[in-house]
Write the structure tokens for this entry.
Amino acid sequence: MKGMNHRRFNRLLASALIGALLLVLIACAPKGGDAQGGQEQTSGPKTTVAAEPTIAKDAAGVWTAEAWKDIYPHEYETYMQNAMNTTEGNAANPHFAVRGDMVKMYPMLPVIWAGTAFNKFYNEPNGHNYSLDDIRVTGRVWDAEKGAFKETAFANCLTCKSADFTALYQQQGNAIFSQPIADINALLNEPISCYNCHENNLASDATASSVTATQTFFKTALGSDAGKVDAGSQSCGQCHNEYYFAPADKAVTNPYTGLAQMTPEAMYDYYKTAGKDGTPFVDYTNPNTGTQQLKTQHPEFEFVFGGAGSTMVQRGYGCVECHMGQPQTAEDGTIYTSHLLISPLENEELLATCNTGAGCHTDLKAQVKAWQKTSEDKVMAIGTKLETLNLKLADAVAQGTLSEAQLAEARELNREAQWYWDFVMVENSEGAHNPKLSTDTLAKSEAAVDKALTYF
Ligand code: HEC
Ligand code: HEC
Ligand code: HEC
């Protein structure tokens, strides 16, 4: 079974059984019979048969989660359980603790991210059900005093937050990204939901083969490597990735084509010529230091699949195996995939299959916590150095103590050190996805910040 992990094997086995069962069902079904089944079954796994929802598509052309409620009750229910993952925290599952304010958790952020609204408004994420609510209130795009969206924000900020946005993007193409955010926001009602990963295909396909990446920019960025990544991981990676807004049309764009270029070094190089007319791309200029900075987003996909891929990817695992767990059997015998996206550390069933010793893990939870501690301790230590660098550089700019040439070099090192630091800091697994990449990337950041500090 080389190259195939346990879970995939289970699923293949399940679908083989389901396939056999379907053949029997089809053979026995009365002509013109009810597609939803209604057959008496005494044993063996059941499956759901695809059907069109009775509720109409919404104005953007999307069948909402609500529309699938009766057709796929198990997927719908578990999808809705992501609402546990909320800002207020949830006693039912301690993993979904109160969502932290990153600006308080990382005290260097106000200084080193000055010039971007992330230095004031940056919270830990919630579950998918809240994506649209959360983007509408963050101070990065919404001006609470004026009671209006900021003029600096465009519709591109809504890209990974709504099934309706995705459908409109598919219809209108890149032109949608530079529209006023208020105009497009008014058209959106559905947060991240079924359409984002299945389009409307669930009406004719009740299986995992209906899973797809719907964001065109990400499919372009995967290029000919798309065949090397399973559809489930693509469906997550289409949003959990590093991107920038292309200067010409504000289109969401990934800084690479193909897996080999999805490394922090290759992306740093890419950005050197991704600005207007081949100049360096600049996310924002720090007003105190004058450094033209880059701001990494949430490079989960690149951390897991970039370059040669994490050790677990090399063993055949993807986002689905770790965050959706093993196939589940409902009380009525239906086999389905849980759509509650949880940490593998909270999934006891999954942990039991991991902690087998013998080449696998013995205590995965402890091991992951240790990786995360190593990564977070380094993030804090280097972040503090970056803060010192920013303060010294700002002072030198104000006092005029460095020559233009020295300033240019110190700023370049500042940009580089922050890029590599950000790349680990904003990635949501805290180093767990790829401990080696985390260590190597932080070492690059530290080398650059240490060198910059020698100027003072
Ligand atoms: C974030 C992406 C994502 C969203 C949102 C999503 N799905 Fe899925 N869905 C998946 C993936 C990935 C699989 C395949 C899992 C696997 O590989 O076994 C899947 C599988 C399925 C299947 C095949 C049977 C099964 O359970 O494995 C059905 C049916 C399904 N989803 C229905 C839904 C419905 C209904 C919704 C909305 C209420 C929804 N999905 C929302 C990603 C998603
Ligand atoms: C359409 C874009 C989109 C897709 C597709 C998507 N995500 Fe997300 N995901 C987000 C956004 C945006 C948030 C943050 C939502 C918020 O804070 O309101 C998020 C949050 C999460 C969280 C919660 C993070 C935390 O720290 O609590 C997890 C876990 C997660 N996603 C996993 C996945 C997995 C696994 C898949 C694929 C099966 C996936 N996502 C597909 C956009 C997406
Ligand atoms: C080999 C298993 C594995 C794979 C593959 C994997 N993850 Fe994770 N992921 C983890 C672990 C472990 C954590 C840390 C969980 C914790 O801190 O409790 C994590 C954390 C996360 C988080 C933060 C939310 C949380 O619950 O802490 C997000 C978001 C996420 N992963 C998304 C993804 C996406 C998207 C992919 C695919 C591109 C992916 N993961 C692939 C194991 C995995």
Summary: Confidence is low (pLDDT under 50) at residues 1-40. The two ends are 58 Å apart (CA to CA). Residues 79 and 339 are 5 Å apart (CA to CA). Residues 233, 236-237, 240, 300-301, 304, 312, 317-319, 322-323, 343-345, 368, 428-429, 432-433 surround heme C (ligand 3) (CB under 6 Å).
